[in-house]
C-alpha cells in the first residue's frame, strides 16, 4: 500500500506535493518520488529509496519548477524497495508518468504482451505496465482514450494518478484503492486520503469504484470505465488541517492517546437509531474486522451476548470467506477504522454476494467500506495518523457500547480518561523502562477485559518489536506456563468482578515461577501480590475496557520510545492495509 498525491494550480507543485507526501507517509515509507511538468511541457522526475527525510537529504525535490505534478510514498508489494522500483514510473519515452497504489493482479501477463511489442521496463513493479499500456494506446488514440483503454486492461486494485507530456491535466483512476479529489479555488488536488488536502480545501469527491477522472485547474470530470460521464456531488469534511497535524507532540501516537478525552465523547454522540433497528431485526450477526478493529469486534460480542443475550460470531476478516456461512438472514457488522482494509472489504463483498445485510463502523467519510455497506456508522474520532490505533479503538468501543445500550449516557468516561492519563503516565513510563529489555511479554485477562488483553499485546508488539502475547488467565496451564521463568514479564488485567478470584489464581501461578507481574487493576489490594500495579478507578463495571486500555497504550508507547523506535511508523506496517 502506498500514498499518492497530485496537484494542479498556480502554486509550486513540488512544494505542495512534498508536504502532502509527509502527511501520507503513514501509508508506506520505503521510497518516495515526485514528477512535475516543467514550463517547457517536459516531465521531470526525482525519486529514491528511503523515507522522505532521508531521500530529501540526497534529492532536491524543490529544484523542480512547475505547477502540475504527482507524488508517491511507497510500501513495497512487487519488487523490493529500490531506486528503480520507486514511483513515479514512466513509459519507454518518459512522456507518460504515473503513480499507483494497489496491486495489478494480471501484470505478468500484461507485461509479456507489452514486451512482445518491444516495450522496455525499468522496474520490477506491476505499476509500470500501466504507463506502457497508455503509451501503446496513444499510438492510435488521444490521451484520455488511451488512459481509459489502458485502465480497462487492469485486474486487481488501483488508485492511479497520471500526467502526460504536453497536457495540463491529471488523469485519475480508481478501483479498490482509495482516491479522493479535492476542489480548491483555481487549483485542484487528489490524494489517497483527505489529510494532505485539508490545508487547502474542505470540499472533496471521493472517487467511486471503477471510475476515471480528468482533473484540470478549475475542476474535474468523472467517467465510468466505458467513458460515460457521471455527475458527482462534493462532500464537506470538517476536520481542520491542525487536527491532522502533530500539534507539538513528539509523536502522533502521543497526541492521539490524549485526544481520547474528546474523541470518546464524540463517538458516544453518534446516532445509532437506524443501525439499532437493523440489529433488532437480525438473529444472526457476524462481525468482520482485522487487528485492533477485531478486538473492538470481540467487545461487541461480549456486550451483545452477555448483556443483550444476542448471539454473535466474530471472524478475522481474512478468514471470513473460508469459514463463514453468510445468508440473507445474516447481519454483518464490519468494523474498520480506515474503511479501506482489503481483507475486510473482500469479506463483506463475499457476505453481500450471499445476501447478508452490511452495517459498517468506520472513521473515514466516503471510504470504500461505506460504498459497499447498506448502513454506516461513523465513529467521528477525527484523523488518526499513528499506525498504532489508539483513539479509533476507544471510539469503536464507544460506538459499539452505544449500539448495545442506546439509552445510556456513558460520555463521562471521556473526562475520566483525561484524568487517568495524567495520573498514571509516570508509572507507565517507569514500567516501560523495566520492560524494554524483555524478550517476550505475556498479557493475561478474563471476561470483559479479555479483548483488552489482546489489544494490549498487539499494541505492545507492533511498536516495541518485543514479542507480546495475550492469553485468557485460565489458558496458562494449558501451555504458555512452560514459558514462564524468572523475570518474564506478565501484565495481568484484574478487574473486581466475577473473574477476580480466578485472576488472582493466575497471578499466583506465574509468580510462583518467578514472573515479573504488573497488574492493571481497580483493586488496591493487588499491590501486595504483584511487582508493579497501575490502579484505575472505574465507576461502572461495564466500562472496564475504557479504563484498562489506557495504561496498556501508554506502556506500549513508552516502551517503543525507550527503545528508540518511532511508534508512529513501525517497520513493515502501514496505517491502512489495502492489499490482501
Ligand atoms: O483500518 P482498519 O481498522 O480496518 O485496520 C485494521 C488493522 O490493520 C489495524 O487495526 C491494525 O491492526 C493497527 N495497526 C493496530 O494498531
Describe what this molecule looks like in 3D.
- It contains 17 helices and 25 strands.
- The protein folds into 3 domains: 3-244, Glutamine Phosphoribosylpyrophosphate, subunit 1, domain 1 (4-Layer Sandwich), CATH 3.60.20; 246-410, Rossmann fold (3-Layer(aba) Sandwich); 425-566, Glucose-6-phosphate isomerase like protein, domain 1 (Rossmann fold, 3-Layer(aba) Sandwich), CATH 3.40.50.
- The model has no long low-confidence stretch (mean pLDDT 94).
- The strands form 4 sheets. The chain has an 8-stranded antiparallel sheet with strand order 3-2-4-1-10-9-11-15, with helices on one face. A 7-stranded antiparallel sheet has the order 5-6-7-8-12-13-14, covered by helices on one side.
- The protein starts with a strand and ends in an 18-residue tail after the last helix.
- Helix 15 (450-464) packs parallel to helix 17 (544-562).
- It is 35% helix and 23% strand.
- The chain is α/β, with parallel strands linked by helices and 580 residues long.
- The radius of gyration is 25 Å and the shape is globular.
Amino acid at each position: 500500500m502506498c500514498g499518492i498525491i497530485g496537484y494542479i494550480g498556480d502554486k509550486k507543485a513540488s512544494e505542495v506535493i512534498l508536504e502532502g507526501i509527509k502527511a501520507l507517509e503513514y501509508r508506506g515509507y520505503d521510497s518516495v518520488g515526485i514528477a512535475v511538468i516543467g514550463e517547457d511541457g517536459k516531465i521531470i522526475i526525482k525519486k529514491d529509496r528511503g523515507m522522505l527525510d532521508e531521500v530529501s537529504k540526497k534529492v532536491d525535490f524543490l529544484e523542480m519548477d512547475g505547477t502540475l505534478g504527482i507524488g508517491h510514498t511507497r510500501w513495497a508489494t512487487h519488487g523490493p524497495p529500490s531506486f528503480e522500483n520507486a514511483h513515479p514510473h514512466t513509459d519507454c519515452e518518459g512522456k507518460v508518468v504515473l503513480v499507483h497504489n494497489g496491486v495489478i493482479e494480471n501484470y505478468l501477463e500484461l507485461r509479456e504482451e507489452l514486451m512482445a511489442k518491444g516495450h522496455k521496463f525499468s522496474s520490477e513493479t506491476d505499476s509500470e505496465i500501466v504507463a506502457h499500456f497508455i503509451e501503446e494506446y496513444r499510438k492510435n488514440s488521444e490521451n484520455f482514450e488511451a488512459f481509459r483503454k489502458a485502465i480497462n486492461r487492469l485486474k486487481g486494485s488501483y488508485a492511479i494518478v497520471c500526467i502526460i507530456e504536453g497536457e495540463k491535466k491529471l488523469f485519475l483512476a480508481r478501483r479498490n484503492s482509495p482516491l479522493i479529489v479535492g476542489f480548491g479555488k483555481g487549483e485542484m488536488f487528489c490524494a489517497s486520503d483527505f489529510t494532505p488536502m485539508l490545508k487547502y480545501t474542505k470540499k472533496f469527491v471521493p472517487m467511486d469504484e471503477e471510475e476515471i477522472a480528468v482533473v484540470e485547474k478549475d475542476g474535474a470530470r468523472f467517467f465510468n470505465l466505458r467513458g460515460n460521464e457521471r455527475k458527482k456531488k462534493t462532500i464537506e469534511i470538517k476536520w481542520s488541517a491542525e487536527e491532522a497535524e502533530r500539534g507539538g507532540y513528539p509523536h502522533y501516537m502521543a497526541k492521539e492517546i490524549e485526544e481520547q478525552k474528546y474523541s470518546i465523547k464524540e463517538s458516544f454522540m453518534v446516532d445509532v437509531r437506524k443501525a439499532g433497528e437493523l440489529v433488532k431485526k437480525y438473529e444472526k450477526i457476524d462481525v468482520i474486522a482485522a487487528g485492533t478493529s477485531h478486538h473492538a469486534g470481540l467487545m461487541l460480542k461480549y456486550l451483545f451476548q452477555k448483556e443483550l443475550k444476542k448471539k454473535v460470531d466474530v471472524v478475522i476478516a481474512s478468514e471470513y470467506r473460508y469459514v463463514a456461512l453468510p445468508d440473507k438472514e445474516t447481519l454483518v457488522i464490519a468494523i474498520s477504522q480506515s474503511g479501506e482494509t482489503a481483507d475486510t472489504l473482500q469479506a463483506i463483498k463475499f457476505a453481500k454476494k450471499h445476501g447478508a445485510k452490511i452495517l459498517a463502523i468506520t472513521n473515514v467519510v466516503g471510504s470504500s467500506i461505506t460504498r459497499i455497506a447498506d448502513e454506516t456508522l461513523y465513529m467521528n474520532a477525527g484523523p488518526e495518523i499513528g499506525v498504532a490505533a489508539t483513539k479509533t479503538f476507544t471510539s469503536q468501543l464507544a460506538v459499539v457500547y452505544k449500539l448495545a445500550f442506546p439509552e445510556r449516557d456513558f460520555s463521562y468516561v471521556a473526562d475520566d480518561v483525561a484524568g487517568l492519563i495524567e495520573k498514571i503516565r509516570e508509572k507507565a513510563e517507569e514500567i516501560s523502562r523495566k520492560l524494554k529489555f524483555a524478550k517476550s511479554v505475556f498479557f493475561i485477562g478474563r471476561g470483559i477485559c479479555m479483548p483488552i488483553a489482546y489489544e494490549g499485546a498487539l499494541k505492545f508488539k507492533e511498536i516495541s518489536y518485543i514479542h507480546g502475547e495475550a492469553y485468557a488467565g485460565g489458558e496458562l496451564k494449558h501451555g504458555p506456563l512452560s514459558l514462564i521463568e524468572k523475570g518474564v514479564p506478565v501484565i495481568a488485567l484484574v478487574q473486581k468482578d466475577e473473574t477476580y478470584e480466578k485472576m488472582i489464581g493466575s497471578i499466583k501461578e506465574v509468580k510462583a515461577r518467578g514472573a515479573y507481574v504488573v497488574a492493571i487493576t481497580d483493586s488496591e489490594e493487588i499491590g501486595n501480590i504483584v511487582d508493579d500495579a497501575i490502579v484505575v478507578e472505574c465507576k461502572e463495571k461495564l466500562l472496564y475496557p475504557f479504563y484498562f486500555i489506557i495504561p496498556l497504550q501508554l506502556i506500549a508507547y513508552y516502551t517503543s520510545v525507550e527503545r528508540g523506535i518511532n511508534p508512529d511508523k513501525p517497520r513493515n506496517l502501514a496505517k491502512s492495509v489495502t492489499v490482501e
